[in-house]
Write a structure and sequence with these properties.
five-stranded mixed β-sheet, Immunoglobulin-like, 502 residues, mainly beta
Length: 502
């Protein structure tokens, strides 16, 4: 709870930052414990037996209570106007009262000598320190005597809070005397640092108003601050009165954080499988105003080529600006980097990269002898008509080596699987066969070797050139023989002489 009257600077209060991350979503919020907090076993609750804006012209006794599991270690009070007017300690006068709830209640009382403070628009603060060391505060406005000055209290904002795009200003405002309709102005001024914020009273007549309302008591308003530059700001709430009679102003130092951090993500686009660890560097990411301090990084690794959008790795930690992974598994990957600055504003960048699969290399031995693609192999005689097939020397990247599959085909039909097998040749078939080996890795990439195998009992076919020569020779001999026979036949035809007798 922060409040200021006149040009008094706000009290310094503690604040905490809470980070909540649900997979790819991160948010940031500031919290502060007040008397208006919900019941909790961890929070001491301060209550008052009088309303905010209590007014009196006479000496009176005000009372209140503290609720907690055990008796508080300390309960103190103070009264402030333009400065601290009085203070004291309730610790020794606390009395336990009957309680219908689950926790005990201790009561306190305070006699107010109005003549001592009057006239005063005063702020009563009760501070409780529990046995466990937790501290909570509660505030009330007291209009004592013939005071005309109004009062403002801001409940939702605390000095040092981070705000982005919009903020909620909730609190209480009231006037003991009303000259005109109440006018509560909200405006902000940039400050160079936390010390300068709220150092002086703001002038609403020369400031751009963020919002103007007419409250009478409790208020809660959402205020657009998206046009404010990043940096420290003095955030003012002012009960406006040009005469100055009812004027009151309060100020809270806020850190405006509208700009998201810029992401710089470096890393490889493509590597070969098994080439070692891959390093991705986002440590140069930066907030344009607030810098790299208190940056939070969330890395999410996915493998769309196999696992879809299901994350296979998530790292969330403050200051972890790099990410490394092995290259043992090929595929398409996406690496999402979400960077959240100290104020809870985040940016996201996605990098796609590939781990390229290494195609295996097939190596084959038939009956102990290496063979190569396209070879024709005459098998050695075997009493059992069986010959060994060995592809165990086939190679791949280290991560895929153990998972290699060997598929053997005969005349293009699969017959065996396994890198070490035995070829059995049927006794009634001696024709040559085509032996094919496919060596397949876990990505279904493969290499192939095909060879011709000739059974040792197969008859050796005549060479084609020799057959052609023999056919040509036979043709020539036949042609010569026929020509000779034709000549001999023509010479044996009889010739007839003419009949001279006729």
């Amino acid at each position: 709870m922060i409040f200021i009257t006149g040009c008094v600077r706000p009290n310094t209060v503690k604040f905490a930052r809470m980070i909540v991350v649900l997979l790819l979503v991160a948010t940031w919020s500031s919290t502060f414990t007040t008397v208006n907090a919900e019941d909790s076993d961890d929070v001491a609750l301060v209550g008052f037996d009088f309303e905010n804006g209590f007014s009196t012209n006479h000496t009176t006794v005000i009372t209140g209570s503290v609720e907690d599991e055990v008796k508080p270690a300390s309960v103190t009070w103070s009264i402030e106007g333009d400065s601290e007017l009085d203070s004291g300690d309730f610790s020794n006068i606390l009395e336990e009262a009957d309680s219908s709830g689950s926790r005990p209640i201790w009561t306190w009382s305070l006699e107010l000598d109005v003549a001592e403070y009057s006239p005063c628009t005063c702020y009563l603060t009760v501070t409780v320190e529990t046995a466990s060391g937790e501290v909570s505060q509660s505030h009330r406005v007291l209009f004592l005597g013939d005071t005309a000055r109004s009062a403002i209290m801001l409940h939702s904002l605390n000095s040092g809070d981070w705000v982005s795009n919009s903020l909620t200003a909730s609190g209480w405002s009231s006037h003991p005397m009303i000259w005109t309709a109440p006018e509560l102005r909200f405006f902000a001024k940039p400050a160079s640092n936390a010390v300068d914020a709220c150092a002086i009273e703001g002038d609403s007549d020369f400031s751009t108003h963020l919002l103007v309302i007419s409250p009478n008591g409790t208020f809660s308003e959402s205020i657009d601050i998206s046009d404010l530059y990043d940096g420290w700001h003095s955030f003012y709430a002012e009960n406006y009165d040009p005469s100055g009679v009812t004027f009151a102003q309060t100020c809270v130092a806020l850190r405006v954080n509208n700009l998201a951090p810029t992401i710089t993500l470096m890393g490889p686009d493509s590597v070969l499988e098994g080439s070692g660890d891959l390093l991705f560097d986002g440590s140069s990411s930066n907030d344009p105003v607030w810098g790299r301090e208190d940056m939070h990084y969330m890395w999410v690794l996915r493998r769309p080529s196999h696992t879809g959008q299901t994350p296979i790795d998530i790292i969330m930690e403050e200051g972890v600006g790099t990410y490394s992974m092995g290259s043992e598994t090929s595929g398409e990957y996406t690496l999402t980097l979400r960077v959240m600055d100290a104020g809870g504003v985040s940016s996201t960048q996605v990098k796609t990269f590939f781990v390229e699969n290494v195609v295996p290399t097939a190596n084959v031995k038939v009956d102990g002898s290496p063979v190569f693609d396209g070879d024709s192999i005459n098998l050695s005689p075997s009493s059992s008509s069986e010959w060994s097939l060995d592809a165990s020397a086939s190679i791949d990247s280290a991560n895929d080596q153990a998972g290699l599959r060997c598929v053997w085909k005969i005349n293009h039909a699969p017959v065996y699987e396994g890198c070490e097998r035995t070829l059995s040749w049927k006794s009634d078939i001696n024709d040559p066969i085509i032996l094919t080996l496919d060596v397949i890795d876990d990505d279904d990439d493969y290499s192939t070797i095909s060879v011709q195998l000739v059974h040792p009992d197969a008859s050796e076919p005549l060479p084609y050139p020799l057959i052609a020569l023999a056919i040509s020779t036979i043709f020539m001999v036949s042609a010569i023989f026929l020509r000779f026979r034709s000549s001999d036949t023509s010479s044996s035809i009889p010739k007839w002489k003419g009949d001279n007798n006729n």
